[in-house]
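Why do we care about 3D structure at all? Because function follows from shape, and shape follows, mostly, from sequence. That is the central idea of this module. The next example makes it concrete: a single protein chain, its amino acid sequence, and then its structure expressed as C-alpha cells.
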Amino acid sequence: MNTFRKPSTLIAFTILFCTLLSQSTTAQTPRFRAPSNNSPLRLDPLNTDEVIQFFSTLKSTELPTWLKSNLSETIPPDSSNDTFARATWLAQLHIVQDEPTCDRLKDRAAPVLKMFGRYNTVRFFLYYDNYPNLQTIAGSYLGVSTGLLRLLKGDTPDNAQFIGLVAHELAREIQRQGFITAWKNEDLPTLRAFELFYDAVATAVLHHLRLPSQQYALILQRMVSATPLNNTDRTKHPNLRQRQTVIQTIALIQSPASAITPTLN
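And the structure:
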C-alpha cells in the first residue's frame, strides 16, 4: 500500500481514475441512448401528438421503407377455406356470393395491397349488413359490408375513399399484438389511440400514392352518419372530429394545396 503514503499521490490517482471512468462511460453511452423520436422503431403509436409530428415530416419516398421495417415479420398466409368458414361463422356474417364484385374490389385496392406486400395474400368478400364496415377475417380476408358497398358508389374515380379504408385495415399489422391485447381487454383509450395511429398511416399511404386524403376523411364521415348510435363500434373508435383532425393536420403539412376540410356534422 505504499502508493498512497503521500496525499499528492492519492489525489493524482483519484483524478486519473475519475478521468478514465468518465471516458469509459462516454464511450458506452451510445449503446444505451434512446433513439430520437423520429426513429421508426421508437414511434409510440399511443402518443397521437408524436404520431402526427412523425407522419407530417416523413418524406413520401421514405414511407415504403418505414412500412417494411414496421409491419409484422410474419404476414398471415392465405387462409384455408375451413379457417375462413369458422371465422365467419363465429362472427355471424352472412356471406354474399358475388365473386365478380370481389374481384373488382381487389383491382381497385391493388395499389395499396402491393404497397403493403399483400396483393397475393388478401381476398375480398361481401357480407350482408346495413352497418358500413370493412374488417379483417381469418388474417387474409377483407370483408366489405353491403352497407359500405352502397356508400362506396359515391367514391371518386381514383378510389381514394376505398384505398384509404384498406390502408387503415392493413396497417393493423403494425403493432398488431398491442392492438389485439387492447381489444381483448376492452381497453378503450388504447384502442382509440391505435385507431388514430392507423388513420395517420392511411393518410401517409394516400399521400405516397398521390391520392387526396380528404376523401378518406369524407368516407369516415359518411360511415359515422350511417352508423346507429347504439353500435358498439362507436365506443371503440375515436370521435369523428379527432380522426379528421389527425388526417387533415398531416395532409395540410404534406400537401397544403390538396388539404380541403370536409364538412363536419
